[in-house]
Design brief:
2 domains, D-Maltodextrin-Binding Protein, domain 2, 12 helices, alpha/beta
């Protein structure tokens, strides 16, 4: 997969300027009643995951929890708060004390897609958070039940147009899994009905059982099932093949040129968190992501570690918001 950092270099100057202003705003935020960064952390910390256990955000949070509990000498607890496309969990962190002790693994859904998809948002995806670091990226993977009579993407598209209607599952409205399906629907012209679930743990059994036709699942969630022969993979959503599964072609090369929908996961703190504490988080997380055993665990799950600066994440997030707003508008998708 092409490095995410390449996208930072291509961002418009206005976006980078906005990111710099945003970073400056974080740096001058009030720090009254906050503990100095030199003594941080001096009590347990919490990483909120806005989805159920087993998915990519949860995998990342548990790796960070394990490594940082050891290095910081304080428990780092993973707290899963799933539902509503990740909005409740993200909102919980947005409204938490801005002291650095509660952070969230934000996703492309919670921090880029949902503002365009939901008519009412409980939080502002930009103003209510302090970006820490872009953790990792991963393509989604188009998977179908083995009983579906299509061995490749071209056959599957032909089948969909012949049957006239298909269903696609997601782990919730607003997720990259959802909008990948909407993008596929728009580009193929197939009449597809979105079936949202409360998480991939409830969606995958219905794909396995043939109750829904297909799903654009995160690679870490479905790769093992594909390799066990329980699901059939028709393509990955990234522009290049994934190093974790180079045998699986991209959707773009398999019949839909230009198809590109990568999931990303990033760490955010509540807005107003002192900049020295944000930087302390970012520095430690980048160290963890570079550990050889962590890099292997991520690669085995189809995750490409990144480890950006807070300013790079702010710029990347703003560009993603603009990108996905157009996809949502073009598809006509709504979550409520």
């Amino acid at each position: 997969m092409q490095s995410v950092f390449a996208s930072f270099r291509r961002l418009p100057g206005a976006v980078l300027t906005c990111a710099a202003v945003f970073g400056a705003a974080v740096s001058i935020a009030p720090v009254a009643a906050q503990a100095p960064a030199s003594s941080f952390p001096d009590k347990p910390l919490r990483i909120v995951v806005t989805f159920t256990t087993g998915g990519a955000p949860d995998i990342l949070a548990r790796i960070l929890s394990e490594k940082m509990s050891a290095s910081w000498g304080q428990p780092v607890v993973v707290d899963n708060k799933p539902g509503a496309g990740g909005n409740p969990g993200a909102d919980f962190v947005a409204k938490s004390p801005a002291d650095g002790y509660t952070v969230v693994v934000g996703t492309v859904g919670t921090h880029s897609i949902n503002p365009a998809l939901y008519s009412k948002m409980p939080y502002d995806a930009v103003k209510d958070f302090a970006p820490i670091t872009l953790l990792a990226t991963t393509p989604n993977m188009l998977v179908i039940n083995n009983d579906v009579p299509a061995k490749n993407l071209k056959d599957f598209i032909a089948l969909g147009k012949k049957e006239g209607k298909m269903t696609f599952a997601s782990s919730g409205s607003g997720t990259s899994i959802h909008v990948s399906g909407e993008l596929f629907k728009t580009m193929t012209g197939i009449d597809m009905v979105h079936v949202p679930y409360k998480g991939r743990a409830t969606a995958i059994p219905d794909v396995l059982g043939g109750r829904v036709t297909m799903m654009f699942d995160n690679m870490p969630s479905s790769l093992a099932l594909v390799r066990e022969g329980k699901l059939r993979a028709l393509g990955v959503t990234s522009a290049q093949r994934s190093p974790a599964a180079p045998e699986i072609p991209t959707i773009a090369e398999s019949g839909l040129p230009g198809f590109d929908a990568v999931s990303w996961f990033a760490l955010f703190a509540p807005a107003g968190t002192p900049k020295p504490i944000v930087d302390k988080w970012a520095t430690e997380v980048r160290r963890v992501l570079k550990l050889p055993d962590v890099a292997k665990r991520l690669a085995d799950n189809g995750l490409e570690p990144v480890g950006s600066t807070p300013e790079e994440l702010a710029a990347y997030q703003r560009a993603e918001i603009a990108k996905w707003a157009k996809v949502v508008k073009d598809s006509g998708a709504k979550a409520d």
